[in-house]
UniProtKB/TrEMBL annotation:
Source organism of this protein record: Mytilus coruscus (Sea mussel)
Pfam family for this entry, one: CARD
Region (Disordered): 1741-1763
Keyword Zinc among record annotations: no
Coiled-coil parts of chain: 1769-1822
Protein name (database record): SAMD9
Chain ranges passing through the membrane: none
Gene Ontology process terms (BP): regulation of apoptotic process
């Protein structure tokens, strides 16, 4: 209708209702076909005249010509006055203009949305108009078609289109195409509303798209098949069943349907199948049976499938009847976060018209994805439901994809989802509304029937998108008024749909119920609806969620407690939440600073929170999976010790663990559905939870569940384990109740929580933005400001926060450290900060950088300038060389003397020139080294300045490993650098010692408990300043700054004792006194005791009061008494004695307590350590206290200190460790060994620590309780069987037992027995045998240990045990020569030893071979391997100790197995002669080239050569003879001694003979010299005769076997073959330019011109000797610089390629794949290519030698002449006898004289002799116990 006419009718609506007689004009309008018969019928049932007129006007408005025929009917029925009134009505042009503008705007939108330009396509104007009308209809608006406007807009919007005109179809547009949003093109007139037949088409005739390919059409049952369909089904199988082709004809002609077919019997077949034989009949029956059986199976399978779908949750650990969803909120848009969970249940309390019409009715449709004509079926069901809701005036929702559980009463539905096209579904629903609702009600229908909502259905294993389709009906009163909604039916009569007991049913207009509804109920329902809508909305009182969050997270404080350990559990994120804006709302996770994140999200192709924090917010996170916590997982497939180290790293590292709980894409771990997760990953998750439960003290955890979506089924499964472990320590945060309903419903059903807990422990309703704001306000985390560090070119670069976090082992000192704008711009805050940090430091807190920033806080010690000079010298490379590029400076200091402060002061002063940092921890040496290198190289190009590293009291082994790795990295960096790298980095070692060393080198300083006068003056001046501040009310009284006063009093012991006593007496609370006693105990006996977590002392500080046990927990109950931490209420006096720290516990998150000063701890403890309590009683009281009643992170921290108290031994002024720990030594001195053992046993019972068990064994060794010592040594090795040090203790038990007997007998005045005591000797042999077994086990274990500490003590222990056994046999009366002959002559058994059993005889006879092999092993380890560890710079170990120990042992062994002279009797058999020669050679220092080169008398070498030649030429030749013969010849050559006894060619032949004997021998330890000499003497050169050298194949075989033999001799190096640090093989020979022996060049032959010092490092290759003496071989560098391929000439001539590995990878890529020259070096593991270069060296550089360093590795001496005095058994016995006789004479003299000056002189002499005797015994004991 024209808008003008519509406005006239609407303006005169009330006038028309009053004046028009409806019955008159109805007939006229019906005759003019404006009204239909249905319209007339509907009008007639309106009960009032006005309503009838209104209905007429409503229908007329929807007809294009309605207004003209309405005027006509008025005139025809004599109502001209009405006609005149309408004609005279004025038009509101402004209103028309507004409507027209709105209409035109919508037309433009529809054109742009539904059409597009397309070359060659044509669209007609009729199609465009139909589309516009359709779109306006579904918007509930009328559309007046202005064809001219539409044409103009099409041409304007689509300029490429051209207007055309078709003869039949009228106007159109070329190059224009309609766009269908579902991807298909609509035919013209698909939306045509002009055809009146469209209004009557049945549902089945509606056009519909083909169902998707993945939706299978429903198959008919056999009983439903027609004859033709039956033939189609069975005819393909005729041949299989041997049926004639006529079968189809018989079925068709006989009209046999499927129903007949399934009931066929044999007797029925004769008529329909007249020509069938009996066999044909049977075949047909068989076919029938098989087809029916197949259908039965198919139906059963489908039913099973349905059952399985309905039961999925039960198989997926989530029973369907328990997993309930909430309906999507009525009449609201679908958000991207909205979804339903497949197989969950929804429940409705409203299934028919409710009492409250605003409460929606819920109906669940039976339609599934397999339903035929899916879209038409959905549309068909919408109409009845919508009409019923409209007529009943009730809100309602029709759900598709939620299957009803009951067909009678639809109260519950299971969510399944539908697979469909959204656009097609909407199109057919809209079309159905247009078809079945009358035209006059289309506008109302579309306004009340909301567009379908498509809500995602989530399923873990879904492969296609599924939806629940919901249609909301909202019949608002202001829209529908009292309208009755009729629906067209195919019967030709309008019907009304209403609710009844059986659901929805159509009512014919003539039925009584409809009449009642129209005449009565309709008005009542409309009025009731109006009242319900007009009722004032009840707004619930909003909870103060912020206060609730403060209660839960902050224990009702404005700040979160510092002692909290948050654990954050993250549900999967909704896809819509993964934008940057949304993720910014989770920034609070940074301030929350949790101990760990547990992430159940699995983001694919989107950002997750992990990515947001790590990349977006530069946070350094430690990526883990739950498998990392599961011992059986791949990640934990390692030794228990490695697992322990990994756990320790988690405890110490400040990297936040981010634990991916359900898939981690980076590691290829996919997301799992709940069932699979429960079987595959739940164990690891539970282990992770138990780990954190064990680490976090009860009441200190804060478990936060962040529910970001409803996809938390796996997290929900895991939540039960979390809540059970962290009872009363959890909270749930979510945005709305829709998300949490299922969460809490399931936990309540499982009885994991109750409703009260649910209410108290959840914060629901805060947006994530508000959560973010609130938590950031209450968190106490302080973010660091910009970090700037110097570069090598003098400028400063910015170190990003993320990079700084990643280098978590280092505390990096920034150039602008502490330049915090928050304080710099606020003088008040700055002054408060100054007072705070000053008082903290003076009270005893650890020094902070702030104390240096305020220039007057710290005294500059007298040693500061000296230390700074040392550091600058080290940083400039004044103390380094090419082999050592790591600078070392050491500060030895007594605890509390200011060593750490002095070291940090030096760093502060150097921070502007050098990058400085403190090594906070060495988690793993490789990781820490990587961080050091990363900091060194950050933003640098080629030549970074050296890094200055402070290591404060680091563990000796770890520091040694760190040095070793850094040393190797420095060498690599030097080779790769374009400029000289003199210093890689400098280590400033701050070493805490109770007693500082008396002797210091030039790079060491010491600080003791003493201040100089200058330093004292500074402190006294400072005290005056502090007094002035106190008087000005700017700080506390200085007398309470105890640490400051200790320094001011110059560590005065009387002051410390007096002050400690006063303060301790002032503490009167028993709990506080106990706390003070325990802390002083720990600090006194472990100077390195760190601050201990406050929570560790909860069990002894929290008590019952008035029958109520204080509950402590961060997540407190609302309205419940909230715990106030006990450490906040301790007395002021106790606070003065304690320091607080905030860097302890798991990942350094908890606050800790410690005694303010180590010296104060000693005096505090002494206040408790008096009668009746002694030290052991206090320790036992402490160990039995409630403090250890639980096992968690905090108590474990204390337990670790206790373990250190048992194990850590102090060093004396000579850097020799005490026998036991400080505590045990004190108890042994003041009490007895029984008390000491009791304490050790108690600690072992608590810890099961093998190292504590070792201390028990050592204590029993000390007490000479041998059986108990054996028991606990054995227990220790059973706990850690792969720890070689424990096996050493086990062996020492027997060593010390035998030694005790040896020393006892040695001091006895009785002369040695002339006959051996059988029992005693047998016992001695048994003890020695057991000891040697344990030392051999130690050797075996040490060769395969994974730790970097090399333990060779087992070899020394075995040799010392052998010496001790033989010395003991001498003490028991066995003559030396007799014993020597018995040991060395296999067939000799003297009468004196005939009583020994065969086992003992064989054991003793085998000692010589064992000693020889073991000694050779020791010497080979010393000569064949070099060490890059700490020992190489003589920090902790003096190499002379090892050298002297080896020489001493060899000398003692030679007294039993060696020969004193070279003369051999003639009657001795030849075999024995050969053995005698070998023993003599060993006695004078033979066996290795190193010893031969250091033999004092060169005549010995000629004698050795003569004796070896005799053996070589005899029939008793052994490998030893050939190897040593060649070695002696080489030694003579090196020492420039001539000989003529053997030619070069003979040596070449002998090298081959030696090699052949070695590869065929079965010796325990192979001679590597045999391989080396073969290659060394047989490598083809131009100067060597090809006739005498071996083949190339033999050389290749030898080099392969050589390496294998090396690793067989040194198996530990095979495990560490690819490691850059630790021991490595040495290189001793090079191939030279000369001929014969001159072609063999020893390393020591290549010295500097002055022979003062060997030039080491890369400079060596430029020295004259190296250039002139060494042969350069040509080759090609291959395999990325790791190998050289060279061509050598074989015996047969020509060239053969030979591959030689390079000594180090050549990183210069310009040399790769090119011709190069190299020097061939010979190491103990094979040949190597050295000095790889592109051209031959030309210039010879004369280098200045560096004096003061050794020219080779520190090796063993020859054994011939030693630098220290060596004591054998004979010398020991001789000296002890002499001393004994001297003492007897003195005693006799004293007895005679009795008085006088001479007696005093004799008594003094007696004391001196006793002291000498004691020293002698101690020296011998040290030899065996070293």
């Amino acid at each position: 209708m024209d808008p003008r006419h519509r406005q006239i009718l609407e303006t005169n609506q009330q006038y028309l209702c009053d004046k028009i007689i409806p019955e008159c004009i109805v007939d006229t309008l019906r005759a003019d076909e404006i009204l239909s018969s249905d319209d007339s019928e509907r009008i007639s049932y309106e009960k009032t005249k006005a309503k009838k007129v209104m209905k007429i006007l409503q229908i007329v408005k929807e007809h294009p010509k309605g207004y003209d025929f309405f005027l006509k009917s008025i005139k025809d029925n004599g109502m001209e006055f009405v006609y005149d009134q309408l004609q005279s009505t004025k038009i509101d042009e402004n209103a028309l203009k507004r409507d027209e503008d709105w209409s035109n705007e919508k037309i433009d939108e529809v054109l742009k949305m539904n059409f597009c330009g397309a070359v060659g396509e044509t669209t007609y104007l009729g199609t465009i108009v139909d589309d516009l009308k359709y779109q306006f209809k579904i918007m509930g608006e009328s559309c007046f078609v202005n064809y001219n406007y539409i044409k103009r807009q099409v041409l304007q919007i689509f300029p490429e289109s051209q207007q055309i005109k078709h003869k039949k179809r009228g106007a159109g547009f070329k190059n224009l195409q309609r766009v269908c949003r579902d991807g298909s093109e609509h035919e013209d007139k698909k939306y045509s509303l002009q055809n009146p037949k469209d209004c009557c088409n049945p549902v089945e005739s509606l056009p519909s798209k083909p169902i998707e390919d993945d939706l299978k059409p429903q198959k008919k049952c056999i009983s439903e098949l027609s004859p033709a369909e039956l033939v189609d089904l069975i005819s393909p199988r005729y041949e299989e069943y041997d049926l004639p082709k006529e079968t189809s004809k018989f079925i068709t002609t006989g009209q046999i349907t499927g129903k007949h077919f399934i009931r066929l019997r044999n007797e029925y077949l004769k008529g329909p199948f007249p020509t069938f034989s009996e066999g044909d009949k049977l075949s047909l029956m068989f076919l029938r049976d098989d087809i029916c059986g197949e259908e039965q199976n198919r139906v059963h399978s489908e039913c099973s499938s349905d059952v399985k779908i309905l039961g999925d949750a039960s198989f997926d650990e989530l029973e369907l009847e328990h997993y309930r969803e909430r309906f999507h909120k009525f009449d609201t848009d679908v958000l991207p976060t909205d979804c339903y969970k497949q197989n969950a249940f929804v429940q409705s309390s409203m299934t028919r018209r409710p009492g409250n019409l605003l409460e929606p009715v819920h109906y669940f449709s039976n339609i599934t994805s397999e339903t035929q004509n899916l879209y038409a079926s959905i549309a068909a069901e919408v109409i009845p439901f919508a009409a019923a809701c409209l007529n009943e005036r009730t809100n309602g929702t029709l759900h598709f994809g939620i299957n009803p559980r009951s067909h009678d009463i639809q109260m519950e539905g299971v969510i399944k989802g539908l697979c469909l096209s959204r656009d097609e579904c909407i199109r057919l629903i809209n079309s159905k509304i247009l078809q079945q609702f009358y035209n006059d009600q289309h506008t109302l229908a579309f306004k009340c029937i909301r567009p379908p909502k498509f809500i995602d259905v989530s399923s873990k294993d879904a492969t296609i998108q599924m939806y629940v389709v919901e249609v909301d009906i909202v019949p608002k009163f202001d829209l529908v008024g009292e309208e009755a909604f009729f629906v067209k039916e195919t019967t030709g009569h309008p019907v009304i749909y209403l609710f009844n007991e059986n659901g929805i049913s159509p009512q014919h207009i003539t039925e009584e119920k409809v009449i009642t509804y129209i005449t009565k109920d309709r008005s009542l329902l409309s009025e009731y609806r109006k009242k319900e809508e007009n009722k004032p909305k009840c707004t619930p009182i909003k909870k103060d969620l912020r206060q609730k969050m403060l209660n839960l997270l902050g224990a009702n404080n404005d700040q979160m407690p510092k002692d909290s350990c948050p654990l954050v559990f993250l549900s999967p994120m909704d896809t819509s939440r993964c934008t940057d804006d949304e993720l910014n709302n989770f920034e609070f996770l940074i301030e929350l600073d949790p101990s760990a994140f547990f992430d159940f999200d699995f983001p694919i192709n989107r950002r997750g929170l992990n990515d947001y924090l790590e990349i977006g917010k530069n946070q350094a996170l430690n990526a883990l999976t739950t498998d990392n916590f599961c011992p059986q997982s791949f990640e934990q497939y390692s030794t228990k010790e490695n697992t322990f180290n990994w756990v320790e790293e988690m405890r110490q590292s400040k990297l936040k663990p981010w634990i991916f709980c359900n898939g981690y894409e980076a590691m290829g771990k996919v997301e799992m559905p709940k069932k699979e997760w429960k079987f595959s990953r739940s164990k690891g998750f539970k282990d992770a939870i138990r780990f954190y439960r064990g680490e976090i003290p009860v009441g200190r955890a804060l478990v936060i569940f962040l529910l970001c979506s409803k996809q938390y089924d796996v997290l929900l499964e895991a939540a039960e384990e979390v809540i059970l472990n962290f009872r009363n320590e959890w909270v749930v945060i979510a945005e709305n109740k829709d998300i949490t309903d299922q969460w809490f419903a399931e936990l309540i059903r499982r009885e994991t929580i109750d409703k009260e807990e649910m209410e108290k422990r959840s914060v629901i309703g805060m947006s994530w933005a508000h959560v973010n704001q609130t938590i950031r306000q209450i968190s106490s985390t302080q973010r660091s400001h910009c970090c700037e560090i110097p570069t090598s070119i003098g400028v400063y670069c910015h170190l990003p926060e993320k990079k700084r976090n990643e280098l978590h082992d280092l505390d990096i000192l920034s150039r602008n450290e502490c330049d915090d704008p928050e304080f710099l711009t606020d003088t008040v805050k700055l002054e408060e900060k100054q007072i705070e940090v000053a008082e903290g430091y003076y009270h005893g807190a650890a020094i902070s950088w702030w104390n240096f920033w305020f220039s007057d806080h710290v005294v500059k010690r007298d040693v500061h300038q000296k230390l700074e000079i040392m550091l600058r010298d080290a940083l400039e490379g004044k103390n380094t060389d090419d082999e050592n590029r790591i600078g070392l400076v050491k500060i030895y200091h007594q605890p509390g003397s200011g060593g750490t402060t002095t070291a940090k002061h030096a760093l502060w002063d150097l921070r502007l020139q050098y990058r400085c940092c403190v090594v906070k921890q060495i988690t793993t040496t490789e990781q820490t080294v990587d961080q050091i290198i990363e900091l060194r190289n950050f933003d640098e190009k080629d030549d970074p300045k050296p890094l200055l590293l402070l290591i404060d009291n680091g563990e000796e082994d770890k520091v040694s490993d760190l040095f070793s790795i850094l040393q190797n990295k420095a060498k690599i960096a030097a080779r790769r650098s374009n400029s000289e790298v003199k210093v890689f980095c400098v280590l400033l070692l701050c070493i805490r010692r109770a007693i500082t060393p008396t002797q210091l080198d030039q790079t060491s300083i010491a600080l003791k408990h003493f201040l100089s006068q200058k330093e004292l003056f500074w402190f006294q001046t400072k005290r005056k300043s502090l007094n002035e501040n106190y008087n000005d009310h700017k700080g506390i009284h200085p007398k309470y700054l105890i640490s400051f006063n200790i320094l001011t009093e110059n560590f005065n012991q009387k002051y410390i004792r007096k002050t400690a006593k006063e303060f301790v007496e002032a503490v009167d609370d028993l709990d506080e006194r106990r706390l003070l006693k325990y802390l002083s105990l720990l600090k006194m006996f472990d100077s390195d005791c760190p601050p201990l977590p406050t929570s560790a002392f909860d069990p002894i500080m929290i008590t019952y009061k008035k029958g109520f046990k204080l509950a402590f927990g961060l997540v407190s109950d609302h309205g419940r008494q909230i715990f106030n931490p006990w450490d906040a209420t301790i007395s002021d006096t106790l606070q003065l004695l304690l320091n607080r720290s905030s860097q302890v516990g798991l990942a350094k998150q908890l606050s800790g307590l410690s005694i303010i000063h180590p010296l104060f701890a000693k005096e505090i403890f002494s206040c408790f350590n008096n009668q009746p309590q002694c030290t052991s009683q206090i320790v036992l009281e402490f160990l039995n206290s409630a403090l250890f009643s639980s096992c968690n992170m905090s108590s474990n921290e204390v337990l670790r200190v206790v373990q250190n108290m048992m194990k850590k031994r102090d060093e004396n002024e000579m850097s020799v460790k005490m026998k036991f720990s400080r505590l045990i030594m004190k108890i042994l001195e003041e009490e007895n060994d029984i008390k000491a053992a009791e304490i050790l046993l108690k600690v072992f019972q608590m810890t099961k620590d093998a190292m504590v068990c070792q201390q028990i064994a050592r204590l029993y060794i000390h007490c000479q309780k041998w059986d108990l010592a054996v028991e606990y040594a054995r227990t220790a090795t059973e706990i850690k069987p792969q720890n070689s040090f424990l096996w050493d203790t086990y062996g020492q038990v027997y060593m010390k037992q035998l030694l005790a007997e040896y020393l006892t007998i040695s001091q006895s005045c009785d002369p040695p027995s002339t006959s051996l005591n059988v029992t005693v000797v047998t016992n001695v042999i048994d003890i020695a045998k057991l000891g040697i077994e344990k030392f051999q086990k130690e050797q075996e274990v040490s060769e395969y240990e994974t730790s970097r500490t090399y333990n060779d003590a087992g070899y020394y222990g075995e040799l010392r045990m052998i010496i001790l056994l033989l010395d003991m046999l001498r003490n028991l009366g066995c003559p030396k020569e007799l014993l020597r002959k018995f040991l060395t002559v296999q067939t000799f058994l003297p009468h004196e030893m005939s009583y020994l059993n065969q086992v003992s005889v064989e054991f003793l006879k085998g000692l010589e071979e064992n000693a020889e092999v073991t000694m050779r092993t020791i010497e080979e380890k010393l000569t064949q391997l070099k060490d890059d560890t700490y020992n190489s710079v003589h920090v902790f170990v003096n190499p002379m100790i090892i050298k002297n120990a080896v020489g001493n042992i060899k000398y003692n062994l030679n007294t039993y197995f060696g020969e004193e002279g070279a003369l051999i009797q003639a009657d001795v058999p030849e075999r024995e002669k050969a053995d005698i020669r070998r023993r003599y050679i060993r006695s004078i220092g033979g066996q290795s080239l190193f010893n031969y080169l250091r033999t004092d008398d060169v005549k010995d070498l000629h004698q050795i050569l003569e004796m070896l030649l005799q053996n070589v030429l005899s029939d008793n030749l052994e490998i030893f003879d050939i190897v040593n013969l060649i070695t002696v010849v080489i030694a003579l050559k090196i020492r420039k001694e001539k000989h003529t006894k053997i030619s070069y060619n003979e040596l070449v032949c002998l090298s081959r003979k030696c090699y052949e004997k070695v590869i065929s021998s079965k010796e325990k330890r192979q001679y590597l010299e045999a391989y080396m000499y073969l290659v060394l003497f047989n490598w083809p050169t131009d100067s060597r005769s090809k006739d005498i050298i071996c083949s190339i194949d033999q050389l290749r075989d030898a080099t392969k076997r050589w390496k294998e033999a090396f690793y067989e001799n040194h198996p530990r190096l095979k495990e560490r073959a690819n490691k850059s640090q630790g021991k490595r093989e040495t290189t001793i020979f090079f191939l030279g330019n000369g001929t014969e022996m001159d072609a063999i060049v020893h390393y020591e032959e290549l010295g500097d011109p002055h022979n003062r010092r060997f030039i080491r490092g890369d400079k060596i290759w430029e020295t004259p000797d190296f250039v002139t003496k060494l042969l350069r071989i040509q080759g090609t560098l291959i395999n990325e610089g790791t190998e050289v391929s060279c061509n050598i000439t074989p015996l047969t001539g020509g060239l053969t390629p030979f591959v030689v590995p390079t000594s180090l990878q050549i990183v210069n890529r310009s040399l790769w794949q090119k011709k190069i020259y190299f020097v061939l070096g010979f190491g103990w593991a094979g040949i190597r290519a050295y000095d790889v270069r592109q051209s031959l060296p030309s210039d010879v550089h004369h280098l200045t030698p560096e004096v003061g360093s050794s020219n080779s590795n520190q090796q063993t001496g020859s054994g011939r002449k030693q630098t220290v005095k060596i004591t054998t058994h004979d010398e020991f016995i001789e000296k002890i006898d002499k001393l004994r006789k001297d003492l007897e004479q003195i005693r006799e003299s004293i007895e005679k004289e009795k008085k006088g000056e001479n007696v005093k002189r004799l008594q003094k002499k007696e004391e001196e002799l006793k002291k000498e005797l004691k020293n002698l015994l101690q020296t011998r004991e040290d030899f065996f116990g070293n």
